[in-house]
Here is the input.
Amino acid sequence: MKIGVLGTGMVGQTIGAKLIALGHEVKLGSRTPSNEKARAWADELGARASHGTFAECAAFGELLFNCTTGEASLEVLAAAGDANLADKVLIDVSNPLDFSKGRPPTLFVCNDDSLAERIQRAHPRLKVVKTLNTVNCEVMVDPARVAGGDHTMFLCGNDQSAKASVRELLTDSFGWRDVIDLGDISNARATEALLPIWVRLWSVLKTGDFNVKVAR
Amino acid sequence: MKIGVLGTGMVGQTIGAKLIALGHEVKLGSRTPSNEKARAWADELGARASHGTFAECAAFGELLFNCTTGEASLEVLAAAGDANLADKVLIDVSNPLDFSKGRPPTLFVCNDDSLAERIQRAHPRLKVVKTLNTVNCEVMVDPARVAGGDHTMFLCGNDQSAKASVRELLTDSFGWRDVIDLGDISNARATEALLPIWVRLWSVLKTGDFNVKVAR
Here is the structure.
């Protein structure tokens, strides 16, 4: 499958590398066509790895990942262009973290709105599925590295078939065993609101190798 | 020990009954001295159970629980009176839920402040420890009813010895096995922010018998 990964940071590179290892073709998208990080990533990972602008990345992908920082996400998707986004599934792993007032960060949107909803409203034909934003990127693509994989991933979105295909990617390709569908995209308010506890647990536990399990 | 439980709803009654069963003396506090629910609760539970006004309840308790609704908490503690609260430990299990815009509820304080911090600021000599607010009241006092007790409780507060005594109550009396101290009271921003996911999981799972475990 051809997959576009928007964002060249650690999250985008880690998810992109996992998708390459799974046999997919991946284009990493960045602001400029000559992004050095993206070039180095593509050079290292071989023929199925490529890079380009956000628009080229979105045009390339049959499936898209938003791995940009929350503050940049809306601008990046605008740059990607509605013609390249329409009717595609976007897996949104971003978080609305605001570090401008120091650490731990606050959220720049929360409570009665969410970043995922803002993205969905800005691009009505895009099928936004919010997931994976509640763990660090190593855990996203390798849940077994924490407690043998015995923990929970949430997803939400407005399109049922989009959620079904994302769930399959999470379970069959990434190895998630417990995936809870919370409902429509407004439920991203709840999963983005898990970041305040995540950043504090990261401080207490001194590692990003953790996640919540919904015990029931 | 003499314990004052502010609030006569299901949370206050359940915690109060558990404390009575553990051998403590408990006074349930309400707005008026003639609260029928509080009277019925005390009549049922025998000689160690009593009820009274918020001020009488706070004066009685060597340890206090805030089991009022979030919207009422500051008013209730003002009614309890600073002279009755000073230098005591208050276990704050309340949540800033706002149902005025429908369900699921939003939070009336969040992100860069919390209800626990508002309580602490209003009563500087009170030793506020935030805990138990992330599960329903049956699970608060009987964690083993979910997954054999293999899940996590958070606590935070500014006073180390207060937190140590609350931790001991949680583990030795209530049966919690995994209690994570997040730090000072500002960390209540993170645990109160768990309510949005809690209310959605309650809808999906059709039961309040669940909790998060921090897998690591």
